[in-house]
Amino acid sequence: MRGQITGRLASLVKRSSKSAIEADGPDAALLADLRSALAPDRVKMDGAQRSLLGHDASVFGGGVAGPVCYPVDAAEVSAIMTIAEQHGRGIVPRGAGTGLAGGAIPLGAPVVIAVTKMNSILEVDTENRIAWVEPGVINLDLSKHLASYGFHFAPDPSSQQVCTIGGNVGNNSGGPHCLLYGVTNAHVVAMEVVLASGEIVTLGGLDAEPDGYDLRGAFVGSEGTLGITTKIAVRLTPNAPSVRTLLLAFSTVQAAANTVSAVIADGIVPAAMEVMDQRITIAVENYVNAGYPTDAAAVLLAEVEGLEGGTAIDADRIAELGRENGAVSVRVAATDEERALLWKGRKTAFGAVAQIAPDYYLHDTVVPRSKLAEVLDQIYEIADRHDVLVMNVFHAGDGNLHPLIVFDGRIEGTWDRVHAAGGEILQASLAAGGVLSGEHGIGVEKQQYMSAMFSDDDLDHQGRLRRAFDPACRANPGKVLPAGHSCADIAALRKVPSGVWG
Amino acid sequence: MDLKLDADDLNTCVQCGLCLPHCPTFRVTGEETMSPRGRIALMRAVQDDGVPVTDEVVDAFATCVQCRGCEPACPSGVPYGHLMERTRETLADAGAMTPTWQRLALKPLAYPAMLRAGSKALSVAQRLNLVPARLGLSEEIPFSQEPLATSGDDLFLFTGCVMDAWQRDVHASGQRVLEAAGFGVTPTNDLAPCCGALQAHAGLARDTRSLAEKMMANLPAGGGETPRPIVVDSAGCGAAMKDYGHLLGTPEAEAFSARVFDIQEFVAQHMNRLPAVEPLELAVAVQDPCHLRHVQRVHDATRTVLRPFVRELIELDDDGLCCGAGGAYSVLQPELAGQIRERKVASIERAAADFVASANPGCSMHLGGVGVATVHPMQIVDRGLHGIA
Ligand code: SF4
Ligand code: SF4
Fold it and tell me: Which of B18, B23, B336, when mutated, tests ligand 1's pocket best, judged by the most ligand atoms within 8 Å of its CB?
């Protein structure tokens, strides 16, 4: 028995995929140049690395990385850009790889620039309420570091315990508390950026009113298609003296959605308002044991921040509005631990659904708040019609829906139904006056729907903006803009070399 | 290649990445191959897609500390520890991991006399500066000590292999605390030479199974109303023994595992039997061994046990990230283990405590290697109860 396996393995072990690639002419030269610019052990070309970096947290597979570089400073990033240009290759920036729209998936074997080793908090300036950080700093690490100064970084995506600030900038990330504080764009004042040419520039500035066009604003949310950040100045947000968190349970999802509208209409601006439907709540509760009511059709997690007196009044009023709209129970978190546990549940919701099925496809549309209940009805109906299981968890306060289709991709024909249902959900959201993406970005996922939202003229102008930064379209090739409107078909999309795993 | 992993277990991972920051090797390298998500994806690639087991793939598996910090962080409940143990077992069987010298090095653990001789040799060598610095052994290894004496038969105190030879004073403290709580203690000494944890980590689960069977035969439940508890003061050993049920898959093994308690866990359940004393004038930082926190998940007990005995308990600010000891890991992967330890030491320094309490010999030795002195929680409780021994 043992001998048998050894024999079989012997042939497997020796067949390192490395040699196949390095023998490939253009790659060998590219690799040599990269290795001399960075330390050799920070440029990887083995099949394991390239295969793993072909994926992010989205359901999209099929990407294949070229050489994987781990630079440590802007000069190295610049050198990589220059070398990639000389070899006519694209580049793809990568943070923690938690994107859900496929933005970090390498198309056409580009050079992958992973910023995870650039993870220092360079400077905290409490007087001007600014911190300079490197792009690989983890979102939650930054807030934890700032806690001793009494501040935090406000955008708090569900993946905040792992996602990077660089990734947040690329996707203009949101999060539950962006209802009050605004998304990443409002919290980044300046950045050092390496353009596809290798040039290092600074966008934005620390002055309240920097001169000229707001190129910083154009860059935030560009999903790596305009260049790559190497240093970011973020705004510090003071921690509120008083925080109250309420958990309301409802017997219909619509009642939860109506409560959200009622709260806003009442003039209250909660820090966060999140709704989870029953299926999600059950999965989440199973992981965190936070006491989420699993018999409710939906729960609303609402949080208010501010001065003690104000939060007490707001919390009472939210409870009252909830009851008026049919809340069957209202619980107020009594301790910080209780609050933390409730949020842990909300923020791990996407991972927790794997208890139900091994794959999920998460959407990210935004609809006008007044249409929430109506669109939700449609989503459940669409899912039923295509025989897929849909769960809903969403940033209710700003109408950002996250319908989550869970499925087992191993079952024949599932993918078609998932895609059909997903497409209809997007169309329904657009028809209700919504937009394609609240916070996850377009990536490869929603590219094909861009034309449904933008006219050809709009798309052409976006393509021109992009080419102003990156004329050859080598930065994150094949992303965001649909084919025909920029560079989706450029030469940088090199044919995938052989010898790489899928 | 069939790694013999359960397909459903593998498929529980949705590649969300939430485990990444809780993985020490990802933390210090930032590389996907050094992350739980990456390692699981490689297991899948090998098992499902027939990807070759290249050196890089083996390396990705070999660099895993098996701290299992990724498990409590995973919202979808991926049984990572079992996946990795099984992967290593299959690869070790196939000759792709755990070379002969490692197997030989693990042998003496099961034979107390050999180990005592070995550690005596090691202690001589250390005094003569013959031990390479990369072993990171700091404290001098004592030449020899008297075995612990039996004081009753209410429970077993597991004394193990490495720990018995190198840290017998910890057992002595543990025994005194248990006795102060009114329990008659039978130290297992040569009855139960080794728990088999290191072997299981190295993919030599067969050795662990035979050690487990031996131990189960030697430590009977007794005829009393409640089966005799087996109290363990090394977090790694306790975690391994609690896993015998899974490892052997028999009702007897399940029943045995149910009798295993970490000593903090056990004492925490009997705090009312300990006398009230003045707390020591000490600020103590708690360093949770991974196998107490992530595997046994009873680290709260350490706080319960220590709180009445010290002026202040300080939490480290690294969310229980591994220190890099990982059984034999610090010897096999010295560079990574050192980088991981640097993070831990920085966190310990920020805590500015008088003492660091750690309930695992591996962590103590690894941290001691760079001059961070740790004490076992039971030594603090013992001192609180009995003064300086
Ligand atoms: S067991 Fe520890 S080292 Fe291994 S993947 Fe999990 S967290 Fe990382
Ligand atoms: S192991 Fe768990 S936390 Fe890690 S990527 Fe897989 S599902 Fe997510």
Answer: B23
Q: Name which residue sits closest to atom 4 of ligand 1, judged by CA.
A: B64
* Percentages (nearest 5) of helix, strand, coil residues in chain B: 55, 10, 35
Q: Which amino acid is at A316?
A: D
Residue found by looking up tokens 């990385």 in the block? A65
Neighbours of A156 (CB within 10 A): 24
Distance of CA A46 to the CA centre of its chain: 27
Domain membership flag for residue B155: yes
CB B259 within 8 A of CB B227: yes
pLDDT digit string, tens, across residues B356-375: 999 888 888 888 888 888 88
DSSP-assigned beta bridge partners for residue B186: B156
Helix (H) / strand (E) containing B277: none
Choose the closest CB to A2 out of B17, B75, B93.
Answer: B93
- The CATH class, in words, for A357-431 is alpha beta
Question: pLDDT at position A245, please?
Answer: 95
CA distance A350 to B172: 48
CA distance B332 to B286: 26
Strand partners for A164: A138
pLDDT, tens digit, 9 for 90 and up, residues B256-305: 999 999 999 999 999 999 998 899 999 999 999 999 999 999 999 999 99
Does residue A114 carry a pLDDT above 70? Answer: yes
Among the atoms of ligand 1, which is closest to the Cα of residue B26? 8
| Residue closest by Cα to atom 8 of ligand 1 | B23
In this structure, are B230 and B84 located in the same domain?
A: no
Q: Are residues B247 and B134 in the same domain?
A: yes
* One domain for residues B209 and B292: no
Q: How far apart are CA A484 and CA A464, in angstroms?
A: 12
Mean pLDDT along residues A421-429: 87
Shortest Cα distance from A69 to chain B (angstroms)?
10
CA distance A168 to A223: 9
Model confidence, pTM: 0.85
